[in-house]
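If you are new to this repository, start here. Below is one unmodified record pulled from the training split, so you can see the exact layout before writing a loader.
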Amino acid sequence: MTIKRYLNITKPGIIMGNLISVAGGFLLASRGEIDGLLMMMTVLGLSLVVASGCVINNCIDKDIDGKMQRTCKRATVTGDVTISHALQFGLALGALGFGLLIHYTNNIAVGFAVLGYVVYVGVYSLYMKRHSVYGTLVGSLSGAVPPVVGYCAASGQFDAGAGILLLMFSLWQMPHSYAIAIFRFDDYAKANIPVLPVAQGIAKTKLHIVLYIAVFAIVSALLPLSGYTGLTFMSLACVTSLWWLFMALRGYRKNIELVVWARQIFGFSILTITALSVAMAFDFKALPPSLLVMLS
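And here is the target side for that same chain:
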């Protein structure tokens, strides 16, 4: 069906993940005083913006997608959806999404949405992904934008809480993406994409996965330590992060099945960030007046 083809090139799985994180950021900043219409328009607007970026990314990546087993059957590769039609579809989604954000949210939220879009489409997709081992690092910034947009839409400001979310979600992206690059190593090598495992080897990638998870664990604890969330979030952050780190360290065992290990790291990364996004949505804390004065 034509509708299904167009839906698939928006990458629904990515949209769903971002929907959860933007809602989590919004509810964290709302602290129980929820503007239902604003939340709905923020989530919908940003979801459309993300969908737009994914569609245009498919157009840009048509040549390399055709070389990878995972992506060779995408509609933009097979011609089921032409590049011109996909571009029109992507631009229409972006116009609608940004229109909703501009109308219903504020300049800070819109600014971060624009930043994430430009980094993902303009910097990452057009250049860094194909030419630099640091492409994953650059792409992590765009992946960290959704919860910040949700937070800023509700709060109307970029404060320490928003900064922690930006850093936390950026750090999470790295081991998550490196795990994919390991179990999709052959695909990336065929397409000549310089992800870390292909460009600098598996050993260095394992080390980076461990280090990024360790720093992610520390940064995640900053939300409760700074008074933004409570004990439930703190406990969940410690348990999930430390278990994820333990799983990463298992990669150094002798005779480890590398692909199985990488898929486990990837799968648990999704569980971790989903659990923390839900936890911060409900385990928020009212900021004390002294901290509110400091942040204002």
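Two things worth knowing about this chain: Residues 1-289 form a domain with the Farnesyl Diphosphate Synthase fold (CATH 1.10.600). The chain has one domain: 1-289.
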